[in-house]
Amino acid sequence: MEVTLHAATAVDDARRSLQRGLDQACGISLKAFCLLASVHSHEGTLPLAAFPPHVFVSGRAASLAASELAHNGLVEKSYAHAGRRNLQLRETDRASATLTTGFEVAYQCLEEAAERARLLEGVEGMAKALSLAAGRLGVSDLEFDPCCHTMLTPACLIALMGLIQRWDEVGLPVTGLAFTEAQCLVLLRLHRVTASFEFMADALRVEPAEVSKLVTRLRNKLFAGFSAGYVSEDYVQKVGLTPQGAEMALTAAEELGKVVANLRSGSGALLAYAKEPR
Fold first, then answer.
1. φ/ψ bin of 84: left (φ > 0), alpha (ψ from -120 to 50), beta (otherwise)
2. Across the strands, what pairs with 238?
3. β-strand 45-47 against 75-81: which pairing, if any?
4. Is residue 65 within 8 Å of 37, Cβ to Cβ?
5. Which of 154, 167, 182, 236 satisfies CB 3.0 to 4.6 Å to 177 for a cystine?
6. For residues 103 and 154, what is the distance between their CA atoms, to the nearest angstrom?
7. Right CATH number for 2-171 from 1.10.443.10, 1.20.1250.20, 1.10.10.10, 1.20.210.10?
8. Does 173-259 match 2-171 at the fold level?
9. CA dist., res. 258 & res. 173, Å (int)
10. Sign of CA dihedral 92, 103, 133, 254
């Protein structure tokens, strides 16, 4: 359970970090950037329907990402048939600079996420694991071409999004929990006693305010409860599982395991990490 939680948290942390980095540096979302990288790996032209389906919840989400790229002047849209069917994307001259900047940002974000996760192989290990996952998620061979970066490929970033989407397909229907909510329950189950908001924020690598939102949602689902009080003049909020939450945590761990199993190598290794900070 601990290894599963660690892998899930590393993936989620990397995804959030990369989303923030791309938004600040390129002004586009992670999904849009993945789509742009895919267009580039297909020699600059891609039918939207050919993009890996595991990244988008729906065709509408894919269309929104394409529109985001077009709005930023990074692709041109056309239709192969009358009636606005079979949308085609073609990268513009502006795309090259955005891809170069974006992949540099992606490398830095993944490197920092790997450090926070204490991965023994660092960013290289994370890139290898994401490549394995990409293959298992059915990503096209063309996406594995290091066309924009010496280490990272479009497949790595597509897999990062695909793993989160895989949870929505596999774990969400069973648990009714968002990806981070599931991690929260599993963490509390492993911790076995009440945990402070600060501990939860550090372990899940989210802001304390986000922990408050997570706990509120879990409390509304009757999976968690929290208390607050002063400890040595410090105001401390703590959260613990209800009996229903403890039971659901086991289910959440099982479903998280199915998702992060895509990162597992042939030797069975799953994002090996140091138990103590290096």
1. left
2. 196, 227
3. unpaired
4. no
5. 182
6. 9
7. 1.10.10.10
8. yes
9. 13
10. negative
- Encoding tokens for residue 121? 């192989």
Residue with tokens 């929104």: 64
Point out the residues of the chain with pLDDT beneath 50. Answer: 277-278
Q: List the CATH code of the domain at 173-259.
A: 1.10.10.10
What secondary structure does DSSP assign to 114-143, as a single string? Answer: HHHTTBTTHHHHHHHHHHHHHHHTT--GGG
CA angle centred on 85, ends 83 and 90, rounded to 5°: 120
List the helix and strand counts (H, then E) for the chain.
Answer: 10, 6
The rounded Cα 65 to chain-centroid distance in angstroms is: 17
Q: What is the pLDDT of residues 90-122, one digit of tens each?
A: 999 999 999 999 999 999 999 999 999 999 999
Return the amino acid letter for 91. Answer: E
How many Å apart are CA 24 and CA 67, to the nearest integer?
Answer: 19
Domain range list for the chain: 2-171, 173-259
Burial profile 137-146: b = 16 or more Cβ within 10 angstroms, e = fewer: bebbebbbee
Tokens of 166: 């895989």
User: Is the distance from CB of 164 to CB of 200 less than 8 angstroms?
Assistant: no
Cα–Cα dist 61/253, whole Å: 28
Place of tokens 């290289």: 124
Determine if the pTM surpasses 0.85: yes
Residue type, 262: N
Please name the helix (run of DSSP H) or strand (run of DSSP E) that holds residue 240, with its range, or none. strand 234-241
